[in-house]
Every structure is written in C-alpha cells, then in structure tokens.
Amino acid sequence: MHAYSEPATAKGKAVTFQRDDFVLYRDPERFWRGEANHTFVCRGSTYVSCGIRYTLLLVQGGLINDAMGEYMRLLPPADAMRDIDTAPLNTADAADEMTAAAMAWLTQQHRTAPTARRSCPPATDPPAPQQNGPPSPRH
User: How far apart are CA 82 and CA 106, in angstroms?
Assistant: First the structure.
C-alpha cells in the first residue's frame, strides 16, 4: 500500500520548507503544457518572499529559481531511511535485502562505535595504611 501526500491546501495551512529539506518539485508550466520531465527531486537552498518562493538545488545538478511552495512536497527522512530502520539483521541473507547505502551506514556505525568499557574499575581490597615509624607525641 502506498501513502500519498496530501496537498498543502487540503490541510488548511500553508506549508513552509527549511533549508536542506529534500522535496519533490513539479514544474507547473511543464506539467500543464503536457511536457515530460516536469517533476524533480531537489534540496532546498534559500527561500524568498516569506517562504512562498524557493531556490532549489536539483540533486542531479542544476538550479531552480523562484519555485512555488504549492508545487513542492517534503520527502520525509523516514522514507529515505526505511531500508536501514527495518533491516532484517537476524537473517542469513540480511545483506542481500539491504541497499548499498544501508550497508555503508551500518559499516560506518560499526567502525565508529565505542568499545565496551567498564563503568567502574574492578573491585579490589583497599590498600593497608602505611606508617612511617611511630607517631610523634603532641605537646
């Protein structure tokens, strides 16, 4: 079953995007003219006019200026990371079912994970007090 994004206007409030958000952008002019290649995956760069217009960086290279927010949909990080988050790590063929990105992330996590350490030093008997000769008398 696929989940579809609802239009921003259906929710009753305007959607604003942040710098570095990954979005799906549909060029409305190309779309309404019936042209192919009208939808792009982009990363937000800057916004203009109170968050209504955006400058987008195409992930394949290039720039889109003055993109309208109404034609953008947020690409949630959870969707991009789902194969890692749901990886079947307890099966013999787990590596075959994961993408190369998932394997790279898990390998990096393994390499940078701290080694197991004891939270306390091992218990030992306290050292015996040392005396250097008889105590001096007090006057």
Answer: 13
